[in-house]
Amino acid sequence: MKFSKSPAWLVQLFEALQPEVGGTPRQMFGYPCAFENGQLFTGLFADGLFVRLAWARRCPAESRSRPWRGGR
């Protein structure tokens, strides 16, 4: 299965914002991303941007829908 490349404008935007966001820039599966303390926290995939949030900052509805992950 071949994944779509991120559009050039999105890669440029990610690279321009990454120093402000912090972390260590890396590539994962050919997509730009950033790691902090060895943990992936933001990156691109195809034409989208993702951000990983701490458990306490996620939507309260998500915490109710996943009771087995509740103390994280």
Number of strands: 4
What gross morphology would you assign?
globular
The DSSP helix count reads 2
Radius of gyration: 14 Å
SSE arrangement, N to C: HEEEEH
Give average pLDDT, whole number: 84
Strand count, sense and barrel status of the largest sheet are: 4 strands, antiparallel
Separation, N- and C-terminal Cα atoms: 34 Å
**Strand coverage percent:** 25-35%
Strand order in the sheet with the most strands: 1-2-3-4
Q: How much helicity do the residues have? A: 25-40%
List low-confidence stretches: none
Structural classification = alpha+beta
From the structure above, extract its key features.
72 residues, 4-stranded antiparallel β-sheet, 4 strands, single chain, 2 helices, 28% helix, alpha+beta
Task: Give an account of the 3D structure.
There is one protein chain. With 72 residues, this protein is α+β, with helices and mostly antiparallel strands. It is built from two helices and four strands, in the order αββββα. The protein has helices at residues 8-21, 60-65; strands spanning 24-28, 31-36, 39-45, 48-51. Strands 1-2-3-4 form a four-stranded antiparallel sheet, with helices on one face. A hairpin with a 2-residue loop joins strand 2 (31-36) and strand 3 (39-45). The chain starts with 7 loop residues before the first helix and ends in a 7-residue tail after the last helix.
